[in-house]
Write a structure and sequence with these properties.
single chain; about 190 residues; mainly beta; 6-stranded parallel β-sheet
């Protein structure tokens, strides 16, 4: 979606992918990307979608939103299931090792969305270990304005290095009445 208004109901998004490499370094929204758009998503299921980046960039994380990516506050997600989505970065590390390595944000959802009564199960934000300092943040959600009455089960954040990995709902402005169980923020120190 770009500069539009949409209502999406009772839809299955399964096995979709966005892959980047070379000069095209951003992988955003494996199933749905909403740029400067107003969208209401309700009673949908997002299963096994991926955003994969294989590029180095000094501009920051390059794989964002394994299922959904948005760049404006016009996205509402209600009563949806996010299961097995994955944002994955395996780009080439900066040869000088002088800057933090880009990585991943939001295994399922990235951006200033309003998320209500949704379930996040086994989503992942992963940066390859060989990069040594790659970040991974928000195994399920990164950057949401509000997450309420939602559950997070067995989501995973995996990166490596001095920048700590952040758990299942990273950088969310407000969390209300949510349940968190068996989520895995994993970080390994540099070698």
């Amino acid at each position: 979606l770009s500069g539009s208004t949409a209502s999406i109901r009772s839809t299955l998004f399964a096995g979709n992918a966005i892959n980047s490499g070379g000069n095209f370094f951003l992988a955003e929204g494996g199933a749905l990307a909403a740029s400067q758009s107003m969208a209401r998503i309700s009673r949908c299921a997002f299963r096994d979608n991926t955003a994969v980046s294989a590029s180095f960039t000094p501009f920051g994380p390059v794989a964002r939103g394994g299922a959904v990516w948005c760049d404006s506050a016009g996205l509402e997600i209600r009563s949806c299931l996010f299961e097995g989505n994955h944002a994955f970065y395996f780009g080439v590390p900066d040869p000088t090792l002088s800057k933090p390595e880009p990585g991943t944000q939001g295994g399922a959802v990235f951006g200033p969305a309003l998320v209500t009564r949704s379930s996040f199960l086994a989503n992942r934000a992963t940066s390859r270990p060989e990069a040594l300092i790659a970040r991974a943040e928000g195994g399920a959600v990164f950057g949401a304005t509000l997450v309420s009455r939602s559950s997070f089960l067995a989501n995973e954040v995996r990166g490596i290095g001095p920048v700590p990995d952040i758990g299942p709902a990273a950088e969310s402005a407000k969390l209300e009445c949510c349940t968190f169980e068996a989520n895995l923020p994993l970080a390994l120190p540099p070698l």
